[in-house]
């Protein structure tokens, strides 16, 4: 019974997290501010290469492929700086949602109130960490791309005059 309650709990907070994440105003997120800014120790995302993130990141589930209301996480060839900026905000939202899923995973302990609850809560936290790492890996690359696109768009604007 407790296992079923835990599974239902995880499913419910996962579904709610999606809808809460989609409803959050993007203007409250800034890639330059805590906790979303890139830290020196992350070396603009290069630290995640040591964990072979390029090999496994595309093998994890991507909710944007399942949920039609989500922004696709791919950049098209004709992307603009505004498109990439939107994607940067989405990485912040996704990171935020996964942080909160880690916090709410402690609710599993309230169901079990034994070492099993602690273990299941930690498993749930560890299952969310790779998704946080992916956002932190992708964001610096997206920021560099956006900055390059802004410069290109400014050059094109000058040439068009």
Structural overview:
The chain is an all-alpha fold. The chain has one domain (2-160). The chain is 66% helix and 0% strand. The protein is built from six helices and no strands. The protein has helices at residues 2-23, 53-56, 63-66, 81-104, 107-112, 115-160. The chain is elongated and about 70 Å long. The model has no long low-confidence stretch (mean pLDDT 90).
Q: What portion of the residues fall into strands of 2 or more residues?
A: under 5%
Helix and strand string, N-terminal first? HHHHHH
Main beta sheet: strand number and arrangement? none
Q: Could you say how many structural domains there are in total? A: 1
Work out the number of β strands: 0
Structural class: mainly alpha
Binned, the helix content reads 55-70%
Tell me the radius of gyration: 18 Å
The total of helices stands at 6
Question: What is the approximate shape?
Answer: elongated
């Amino acid at each position: 019974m407790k296992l079923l309650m835990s599974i239902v709990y995880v499913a419910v907070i996962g579904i709610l997290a999606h809808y809460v994440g989609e409803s959050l105003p993007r203007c409250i997120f800034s890639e330059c501010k805590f906790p979303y800014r890139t830290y020196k120790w992350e070396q603009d995302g290069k630290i995640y290469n040591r964990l072979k993130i390029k090999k496994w990141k595309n093998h994890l589930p991507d909710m944007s492929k399942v949920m039609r209301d989500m922004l696709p996480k791919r950049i098209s060839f004709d992307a603009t700086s505004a498109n990439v900026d939107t994607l940067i905000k989405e990485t912040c939202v996704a990171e935020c949602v996964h942080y909160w899923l880690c916090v709410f995973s402690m609710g599993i302990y309230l169901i079990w109130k034994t070492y099993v609850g602690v273990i299941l809560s930690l498993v749930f936290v560890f299952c969310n960490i790779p998704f946080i790492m992916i956002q932190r890996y992708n964001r610096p690359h997206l920021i560099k791309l956006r900055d390059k696109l802004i410069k290109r768009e400014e050059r094109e604007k000058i040439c068009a005059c």
